[in-house]
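Collaboration report, partner site 2.

Our partner group contributed sequences for two proteins of shared interest, and the home lab folded both. The records are reproduced in the order in which they were received, starting with the first partner submission.
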Amino acid sequence: MPYSLSYGGVFIDCKEVIANYWNFRSSTYKNGINGFDEEERAVWKQIFENSLASGKRLKVLDVGTGTGFLALLFAEMGHEVSGIDLSEGMLEKARHNADNMGLEISLFHGDAENLPFEDCSFDLVVNKYLLWTLQEPASAVREWKRVLKPGGMIFAIDGNWFDPRPDRYIKRMLYGLAERFAKKNQYNLIFKKSYDPIRNSLPLYEKISPKNISFLFSETGLMNTEISPLLEVQKFQRNRHSFSRRIFENNSIFLISGQKN
């Protein structure tokens, strides 16, 4: 799949569009309900501690690290962590967050679909809310598998953000109207302006689901695929959502893991 396309006769570089949008969002984006809220981080830590062998220090790669939410969480847990992102603005925010938290992580500017790391470099590859925004998700997963050591794991976290089914679409529309009426979520229109021209080039944009990611993992040769609905995280987040979001939003997040044979 090419990295560029024509939209209304205008040549568009998809990677540049994505990087520019997240550069713009980097100053205000919160990866989580309250960004780096300690209670929310504790919920996530418990999930990962239950999924990993205890007592072993891992080499972890956070792909599409953004503001460093996962990278810093795993660093807090005692692991050696690297993060990579297409957005320089997000990387700057991650550096700032690392300094504020007194944590050390290695950060790299690069592409999730073409990693600048050697084969068999990491024990664990993680990402959060990334797969839906990739042009070549299968190529990305193969890259993540390449840099894993034998027996290493991939943890992919995502949600059904743009489910096209009519009931889900109507709820999203109502939520958007409620937020606009309350003069919240002013980034919605900017997001649409950025992503609408390229959405058809993103295979998982409207098809992100546990079933489709599980198939993707199996197709790329990952073994022992498991799905977690992240019920503890969803419960925590619902309790802190705005009233309109609790009523109208119907996104459900999930974690899918797979292992390199």
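Second partner submission, folded after the first:
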Amino acid sequence: MSGPRLALLTALTMLAFAANSILNRLAVGAELIDPMGFALVRVVSGALMLVLLAVAQHRALPMLARGRGVGALSLSLYLIGFSIAYVHLDAGIGALILFGLVQITMFAGAVIGAERVTPLRWTGAGVAFAGLAWLLWPAGSLQVPWVGAGAMALAGVGWGLYSLAGRKSADPLSATAANFLWAVPICAVVPMLLPAQIDGVPMTGAGIALAALSGAVTSGLGYALWYHVLPRLQAAVAGLVQLSVPVIAVLGGAVLLAEPASLRTLGAGAVVLGGIALGLWPRQRRIGSSGS
């Protein structure tokens, strides 16, 4: 895969991830559907979309492949934690916790996997994370509900592990479909173990439609695309580029949800994107110098 094509596909997956945040805010934040209902409809619709595509392309579903348990459990952890967290957190703090934990998890995976993480890449990650903190940290005192913070932290670890597992996928579409199928019963059973207060909002048609859109398109297709590009990215790079998602989500919220975008938003966004560019520069330079 050429560099420009890889960059384009990676950018598309980041747009899909940001769209998930917006769709979740629209549905759960407006109490159009309860968080566990959103997670369940999301995973069911994603599974249906992916299975249909796999069957249409005559692909087998590797339900018992090595590492499938890690993929299914980490995906479920992300889906459930993500939905519950947005009941308690505003979008900014939630995104900071989520992608901060994703970054830490994937950089830890890079270190454990003995990948070479250059000092400049660490610096770029630090700059990007600082810009993200500036973008999302409130100007006044911070009071983060522990339930929401804990749920989003677990979601971040889940997504980080899911991304690390995806780097070994030989068939991204089939692997993603199998993960979603295993996640369906998990997301159906977990609500029975949670406090009743979690799911006190009735489902509406609009909430179900938003969850289905999130599942079939921005999750199912978006995650299959992510599994397609992951084997071509180092773990540290994969963690780094995902720090662009909260910036995209904030800008999307300004355009689609009429949320205010201040000079602070634009400045912090520039810092985040600059840090990502700094962190990616060493690898781009090595590729160019090696002639590959």
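Feedback sent to the partner group on the second submission included the following. The CA atoms of residues 284 and 290 lie 10 Å apart. Residues 283-292 have pLDDT under 50 and may be disordered.
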